[in-house]
Design goal:
Layout (H helix, E strand, L loop, with lengths): L12 H22 L4 E3 L5 E4 L4 E8 L8 E5 L6 E6 L2 E3 L11 E4 L7 E6 L8 E8 L4 E11 L2
Parallel strand pairs: 2-10
Antiparallel strand pairs: 1-3, 3-8, 4-5, 4-9, 5-6, 7-8, 9-10
């Protein structure tokens, strides 16, 4: 018994559509393969602090993924109003707002599980208010709002 091998001519719609179809399927799958989706969570209540004391503002990723190679940015009302910045695996102080210089510390003991906290020393009345905890990976970013209430003003 002899079988015929099908042949596709250059004008055949199946052969000309196939590369486009394969490319489309790959394009739709790539973001799903590389995208690491996460959410950022902070406390759902204000953090209380006393004048001249210190405050610890906790923030974490869900699911628990490492943030070692992410950008972690704490800022006030504007993205550029940097309270503390961690990028390229280390703290970056060059763009920090002058009023926070020497008063902040990023607690990174559990950064491999996506948990970081910002410690602010020598609390001042101006520290009162909202803070944003921002995480950015190579493919996505998320943020959470936190509130610091300074007592004894």
């Amino acid at each position: 018994m002899t079988g015929k091998v099908p042949s596709f001519s250059p004008g055949c719609t199946v052969s000309s559509a196939l590369p486009g179809y394969v490319a489309l399927c790959l394009a739709l799958q790539v973001p799903r393969l590389v995208s690491a989706q996460f959410t950022v969570t902070g406390p759902n209540h204000p953090i209380a602090a006393s004048l001249d004391g210190e405050a610890v503002l906790p923030c974490h990723l869900s699911p628990r993924i490492s943030a070692e190679n992410m950008e972690v940015r704490w800022f006030r009302s504007q993205f550029s109003a940097i309270v503390h910045l961690y990028r390229y695996g280390q703290d970056q102080y060059g763009q920090q707002m002058p009023e926070y210089r020497g008063r902040t510390e990023l607690l990174k003991d559990d950064i491999t599980n996506g948990r970081v906290s910002l410690r602010i020393h020598d609390i001042r009345p101006s520290d009162d208010g909202q803070y944003t905890c921002f995480f950015k990976s190579n493919v996505s970013y998320e943020e959470a709002l936190l509130e610091l209430q300074v007592a004894g003003q």
